[in-house]
Design a protein that fits this description.
It is built from no helices and 17 strands. It is mostly beta strands and about 190 residues long. The chain has a single domain, classed as Immunoglobulin-like. A six-stranded antiparallel sheet has the order 3-6-9-15-14-13, with no helix packed on it. A hairpin with a 4-residue loop joins β7 and β8. The two termini are about 45 Å apart.
């Protein structure tokens, strides 16, 4: 801290005026790295068997890097949230729906994301099918630490299943967000 004293005299005032100005040096800045939260992060199954108020309609699937995790997001149309889901590790190989056709998914460990009362096709609000998810069946994101592929393996009778291929078994957490409704999986 620095202090300055200024004395001023004026010809038209009979006395001198003293003014003190104090200047405070800015605080020293230090760089700190905040620890990543580990609340709810483990390798155990995560599910919400909650009742659904209707079919959640998928519009987008994306993957990106967060400060502490790879994040896979499943976004739905405004309306019913994805309330009934299970996310858990399962061994491969996997089959496409009920076809029994084996599909190879990149990775050595697999998180299976199963939505009940969800679909990428709206077959209830109109007399014809309306596809709400028009993205690819398989995503190969780059620049991520653990996620190697995200692949849809089922969308039939309001059961929607995606598999997240990983380089190894990693702790993960799951959350649901609003505006628009979406479920995310964070892989530590």
């Amino acid at each position: 801290m620095f202090a300055f004293t200024v004395t001023a005299c004026s010809d038209d005032t009979p006395s001198a005026t003293t003014q003190t100005t104090t200047t405070v040096a800015p605080p020293a800045t230090t760089s700190t790295t905040s620890a990543c939260s580990t609340s709810g992060v483990d390798t155990g199954s995560k599910s919400n068997p909650g009742p659904s108020s209707g079919t959640s309609l998928l519009t987008d699937v994306r993957a990106g890097r967060q400060p502490c995790a790879d994040r896979v997001v499943f976004e739905f149309q405004p309306g019913p949230k994805p309330e009934s889901y299970t996310v858990e590790y399962q061994p491969g190989p996997f089959a496409l729906g009920e076809s029994e056709q084996t599909v190879t998914i990149a990775g050595s460990s697999f998180l299976v994301v199963r939505f009940m009362q969800a679909s990428g096709v709206d077959d209830e609000s109109t007399s014809q099918l309306v596809t709400t998810y028009t993205g690819p069946e398989s995503l190969h994101p780059s620049g991520l630490t653990h996620v190697t592929e995200v692949r849809r393996i089922e969308d039939f009778e309001n059961v929607l299943v995606w598999v997240i291929g990983l380089d190894s078994t990693q702790p993960f957490s799951v959350g649901v967000l609003d505006g628009p409704p979406r479920l995310y999986v964070d892989i530590a």
